[in-house]
Amino acid sequence: MNKTTNYASYLRWYPRGWRERYGVEFVTLLEETYCGKRVPLKASISMLKSGVVEHAREAGVVGDALSTRRSIVGSAWSVLMAWAVFLIVGSVFAKYVEHWQWVTPANEQTLPSVAYDAVAIAALASAGIAMAAGMAVLPSFIRLIRSRGWSGVRAPLRASTFVGVCALVFSVGIVVWAHEMHDFNGAAPLWPTRTVFYFWFAFVAAAIFTVAANVGTLTRRLELEVRVTRLLGALALAMNVVLVVIFVGILTWWGSIAANAPWFFSGTVLGAPAKSSSSPSSFTVVGSTNHVAPVLLIVLGLAMLGALLVAAHGAARISTRLRRAE
User: In terms of domains, do 244 and 134 share one?
Assistant: First the structure.
């Protein structure tokens, strides 16, 4: 006996509001079209893409069907997601470039130092903007709990708290483990160590995205005042500027190091110290000097560029709607 396809399962790709409005007709159309047979892969991919677009439209990221305030909040959330990408990528970049001063001639450190410091200052500014946005919506969040109780916020708060606590515990465990490995002079095999650290990083990145997504879910459920909506829009525009500064700063650092200390990217960068000096910049250079575009930096740069385009799209939507917010 052939099993019939459960066409209602395709509804999970669409947001709740869309399912409540079009769900019955959607399932009926699939049943009449495919008569119990399996949906072709091309049609499944098309429905998946359509579901993603509907989610983005419901979130206020694309389209004009929602109110101006809802569009501003949704676009601000897209900027927040872009910041989450920068947060993850920036942590990898900071680890990758540590001790770059040791291998760069002292007379060539001015430009990369300025770029590096600009990135650090902009990163702190971005954290401050995110905190200000959180403080702005906090009164509305408290009013929501007082009026409707915890039922409307329990699920996203529970998920965010769970992944946040797990990421914190995992991170503490990694720090303790790394400290013990250091005490044993790095005797542990290299590939298991890297695997654990890669898994930890992936888990923390997933936790950050989960929290950011749940923040968007909670924010869309709030009844925000006009001034709060405008403030969120202004903060999102400021965040977009900060992200541009971070991106340009990283590119400037990369270009200046590639021009003046390309051996930094080769993996084996230092030889014996020169006899005439004990400063780090007097080390002789060993290894290849033509690896100025390592795969890791290319991947990080592309990830930041993609996030920056998303943030720019959100900022453009906010700038055209901010004055109309009523």
Answer: yes
